[in-house]
Design goal:
It is built from 17 helices and 22 strands. It is α/β, with parallel strands linked by helices and 528 residues long. It binds 1,4-dihydronicotinamide adenine dinucleotide (NAI) and 2-oxoglutaric acid (AKG). The site of 1,4-dihydronicotinamide adenine dinucleotide has 33 residues, from helix 5, helix 7 and helix 14. Pathway: Amino-acid biosynthesis; L-serine biosynthesis; L-serine from 3-phospho-D-glycerate: step 1/3. Catalyzes the reversible oxidation of 3-phospho-D-glycerate to 3-phosphonooxypyruvate, the first step of the phosphorylated L-serine biosynthesis pathway. Also catalyzes the reversible oxidation of 2-hydroxyglutarate to 2-oxoglutarate. Pfam families: 2-Hacid_dh, 2-Hacid_dh_C, ACT, PGDH_inter.
Length: 528
Amino acid sequence: MTYKILISDPLSEDGIYPLRQADGFEITMETKMTPDELGERIGEFDALLVRSQTQVTRAIIEKAKHLKIIGRAGVGVDNIDLEAATEHGIIVVNAPDGNTNSAAEHTMAMLMSMARKIPQAYYALRNRNWDRKSFVGVELKNKTLGVIGLGRIGAEVAARAKGQRMNVIAYDPFLTPEKAEKMGVDFGSVEDVVKAADFITVHTPLLKETRHLINAEAFRLMKPGVQIVNCARGGIIDENALFDAIQSGKVAGAALDVFEQEPMVDFRLLDLPQVVATPHLGASTVEAQEIVAVDVSNDVISYFTTGTVRNSVNLPSVPKEVMAKIEPYFDLAERLGIFLADLADGTAEEVNIQYAGELANIEVGPLTRNMLKGLLKRYLGEIVNDVNAAYFAELKGVTVTESKSTATKGFTNLITVEIKTAKGVRKAAGTLLNGQGARIVKVDDYLVDVAPKGNILFIRHNDRPGVIGRVGTLLGEENVNIATMQVGRSNAGGDAIMLLTIDKAAEQGSLDQLEKLTEIEKVKAISL
Ligand SMILES: NC(=O)C1=CN([C@@H]2O[C@H](COP(=O)(O)OP(=O)(O)OC[C@H]3O[C@@H](n4cnc5c(N)ncnc54)[C@H](O)[C@@H]3O)[C@@H](O)[C@H]2O)C=CC1
Ligand SMILES: O=C(O)CCC(=O)C(=O)O
């Protein structure tokens, strides 16, 4: 059997050497195809290897009749429609750490070029202009670097900045004051970081939560003369807000490797003399390109020869017999994880999952991983799946314990998940009801009965006459339709909760209005 591999972005020839050497693979390298041409050809291939340029859209995946694996020679998989790949049973693998060093070095190169205006001075000199007055820079020494996203690349950048004798302040949802102290960086919220920094660099994935994380309001909070670097993903910084902040004089410099649209179409930012830029070159080194191509080549070989991969981004690897028994609970476990991620304040430091009733007699490891996937993907993005969730939990210092009990607790089966964050403990329990599907039956210590899907509002309030009516009226005025409402209380006149399912996600403004009602302590929007 010969497997046909298509490489549609330039990959290092040394990196794909393992594939060229292995028996049973036929490689086609076509790096200049239009999306239409790719769509016409993709049906012939068993594997596709890409970098960030090829857009592996749902339309492409739907035409990929024989495709079994997509290898992304790099970290970010935002150019691949993961949902479509998963739906079509196509495994997606990436190379999560092969380009960390190169991306960190590029970030430092951009930071220094920006601070010392090296590209601008070079450009003037090329034009035979010996100008020493226009390019006076600033030193990094004793300045504060704000790092937003202290993962693999962010941590490497922080270490290098300390080598430049900079002070570093960082925010990452997984960073605790203890971890920050060990790394020799200051710990702060996004607001603390943007207020304190002379230079800012972002290293998060592009997620719903990080899109335009650096927006007009963030620029407003920054110090005058701040300089900012983006070598992560276009869209983390709002380009329009950046343009305005540079023009107003608030931002003195920007160094950009990535853009909201790539290849770039809007060159407005580049017309500003304060901006230095590269065309997404963070990972473009001989070394990184070789490592990431070797990593994905090995995973492709391993997949076709042994059925296993090292760096799966999307698919579960649960044996079929086990899967048949646990499949009904799979979705419930993931939704409990998402529910708690949205409900809790802060990120989980400890997670306890307990299986009761008939679940005590089956292999529940994959359920725990799927719950962790739900919990962690809110912070780490779609890259987390049930295969790598436990790895990510360990990497982020989240302690996970699993226990089983045959006691039925009034339900034939019950999954209870408890998470501990720096702000406290939250708990939710779910069950599968015969004929009715999944239900959340307990939140903290309150009994409830709610289907874990769609948009849910969790409201903690004081049990007073009229509060339910005021919530209904306010949501009605905001045009938010309530589908179901559950109320629970500790004792008459004491603490109480409401769980409302609503027909569409509530705007932040509506949530703020609710929180202004005197009886209401907390409102959380949960999206399942
Ligand atoms: N310019 C280039 O060529 C390259 C860009 N990248 C991009 O760099 C980014 C980071 O890569 P890695 O460090 O390898 O990933 P990573 O997963 O190790 O780190 C990302 C960090 O962001 C944190 N995070 C998530 N949401 C956050 C939020 N709202 N605020 C602050 N932090 C948040 C996560 O907790 C995590 O620690 C990715 O987007 C990746 O695609 C990676 C390699 C090369
Ligand atoms: O393949 C590339 O050069 C882009 C690298 C990148 O952005 C990533 O690995 O996320």
